[in-house]
Amino acid sequence: MSEATHDSGAHGSDDVYQHLQAIHPDPESFIRRWIFSTDHKVIAKQFLWVGFGFLFFGGMLAMMIRWQWAFPGEEVPSILGGAFLADTGGVIGPATYNTIFTMHGLIMIFWAITPLMIGAFGNLCIPLMVGARDMAFPTLNMLSFWTFAVSAVLIIASFMVEMGSAAAGWTTYPPLSTNVGTPGYGQTLVVLAIFFTGSATIMGAVNYIATVMRLRAPGMGWMQMPLTVWGMWLTAVLNLLFVPVLAAGAVLLIMDRSFGTTFFIAGANGNGDPILFQHLFWIFGHPEVYILILPVWGFIGDLIPFFSRKPAYWYRGSVYAMILVSVLSAVVYGHHMFWTGMNPLLGQSFMLLTLVISVPAEMLFLNWLHTMWKGSIRLTVPMLFALGTIFVFGLGGLTGIFLGTISTDIYLHDTMFVVGHFHLTMAAASFLGTFGAIYFWFPKMFGKKMNVGLGKAHFWISVVTITLVFVGQMVAGYAGQQRRLWDPFQYTFLIHLADLNRWTSYFAFTLGVGQLLFVVNWFKSIFAGEKADENPWEIGTLDWTHAPSPPPHHNFDVIPRVYNGPHEFANPEVKRLLGRDWLGQAEPFPTDAAAGAEGGAAAAKASGDA
Amino acid sequence: MKVNHWILKAVVALGAFLAGTSSASAEVQPEAVPLWGWLPDFPRDVSVDGWRIDWLIDVTMVFVVVLFVIMCVWMFWACFFHNEDHEADYDHGSSQHSVITALVISSVVFLIMDGTLLVNSIVDLDQAFWNFDLAENLEDENGREGKGDPRPECGAEGSPTDGTCAVRLEVNARQWAWQARYAGLDGEFNTPDDVEVLNDIVVPAGSPVIVQLAATDVIHAFYLPNLRAKMDAVPGMINRLWFRSKDDARGDFDLGCAQHCGTHHYKMKGKLTIVSQEDFSAWLGEASQTAARAFDINDVNNHWGWSWARGGNG
Known about the structure:
The complex is a heterodimer. Chain A is mainly α. Chain A has helices spanning 14-20, 30-35, 40-70, 94-130, 138-158, 185-214, 227-258, 274-291, 294-308, 315-328, 344-356, 358-372, 381-404, 406-412, 416-446, 452-478, 498-528, 542-545, 572-578, 596-609. Chain A is globular, with a radius of gyration of 25 Å. The termini of chain A are close together. In chain B, the strands form 2 sheets. Chain B has a 5-stranded mixed sheet. The longest helix of chain B has 34 residues, at 96-129. At the A-B interface, helix 4, helix 10, helix 11, helix 12 and helix 13 of A face helix 2, helix 3, strand 7 and strand 9 of B.
């Protein structure tokens, strides 16, 4: 705890902060205001809308995959996307199936979850929560969105070229992803799109990192930041370090596809090294799965104390655990490649390092559970989604250890067990966590409240069905079913799993249909929602205490000075003096004539402990 | 890799103790016991070492379920009893007591659950899946400790084909078929009497089968679910694996591709037939003589084999 935090009195030095982040006038023209906007809140909404569009697209592809596994080779109903299969009379052929699962994975990861979670909420939350008027580099921020938009156009274009879009799996392993396996422009366009969206991500990451490091409100030390900001910052650091590696792999792959090189082509067609690509891909790819979960850890790290009305349990422990996971994420990627012919000693090292990740993960879980324990829990919609995230992430995290261990991975590798496992973490946990964030920050974004009844119905139907879908997939994998089979029941040993696959699909369809509850709630609330005041959740972070809902272009009329940690709840002294159970981050500890000295001491202790 | 360092041995002993069983000294080879009767089980295990995988998965599953149930009870209990009628404690959880509690719980769970996995996995790799010495030398009782050299008659070249030595198999994966090659009666690969099969591999029951894997076009993965065996076939590389079926195993089993390899990945299916050692010997002898008679030097598509690679990747 720095002394600076407590230099109460007239904050002459704070003028510098106001001065350095001048208030710019609101943009006048429609284009500058809503399209080529540099306002982080508008850019957040742009990412949000595009992300929703691709979430719907990727979700429809998922429904088609599930249809195929339930009823292989049967005509797809138009409502599940059969209308797009006019060429084959609504039937998914093996080649189309490969395109569907490939693009489902890529779209969900790079064009749905990434823009929704990181693009939208990174942009919205970071400046508001650290008390900045905008991102450090607003123009770069705009460029980031529009580079992302180019990649989105490339993705859509890839479906329209001859032979269709990419079909080599989301991992894009060569030689299958070279002309040896997938000729045509579709795959090239998709790899190019990955390169573009990676560039957008890097621009965003630079912005997030700089904003958190340079634009925190006076008095806000690293250990007074909301955990959401910590999650976003660590995600940005991982993105900045590892997305360039993916981009390098993508460039080399494009050269193999279009310029006749053979970096990754071996066997009958060249003398390159296909495994080199896997190294490049997974050096990025393993951090990527933490990139897609760290922001969610941040959300639930904040939402749990917010709605347990209790300080976050061992805040520093959660921060250290997230840092440790980020560091370890860089040195475990080999567990994706145990069966590529990896050196045994190297494989065992990767196994050990992978298992070590259990320790920080357990610390996080313990902190969340301890925070709830002896709290005063309010089961609001965002809280329900946070609890649902813990539930599915518990399942997903625990099942990861089977795959990080070499001998059990012999059997489980490349089976549906892997699919179920990573969907529970990257899809279910990221998806529920992001919905928690949407329900939580919706009032701040739009100045309206969302419907609670619809929100709770959406939660229950989502958490139940999403668990059943991915646990069903894990059971299929436990019984040996490989991934990515157009018709799994060609194999004798899988025939008895037909019912299991069909039931899993029914749950998936229910999950898909259940999202209509959200769509209805979303539009209803935007157009006819009850008006939300500045701080409907009674939370102490700067976004809720110092910015109206929705915030003006410059966020804060006066950049506030921070005194407390983000989760100051249940302080008996605050209750006695203010009659409420929370204390704002920018609120000096209350004093009255009688309890002045005592209160000041408690405040010092409170922020010191945080 | 051998377990000979005392630290490693101590860790092995600790892991075996924690798991409540000693896989290190297990002479029995139990059948995998399904934990929940209503869930689909593993495919029938016809291998000698598959129980190691099944057992470790099931034991870990117990740990996982227990931890998950504890987490859920904790969470639901808090939601029901520490609700808005309950006054929240003012506790930052940053006291020394809280921190030590959290660290101890995390470490204990890690040591027990992850420790069991790690130790058993290393033991299993060492005693079975990655112990190619054992595969070469199975008839020798000392082989389990990996001491003796392979029996001279089971050497790299010219092994007897009566089923008493390891069966050597070269497999080349291509879109969308499994080409396999036996050395034939002379025990040497790339000679006219090599026996070539397509999607139809025959192995003798009880003998170790060592497979060297390559691929022509894209990456495939050789997957024998009933033998708990899997390995990538990568263009430009020779990977290897070995497995051994139980003495009394007979019949046809699925050979699958586990790595997405293009349009007809789902159809890249082969058959593994396990026969008695006598039947295998008779079949191979006849097939090898037929192959030698039918050998055509100009049929280049048939000459994809390689000299048996020593060492190599695990």
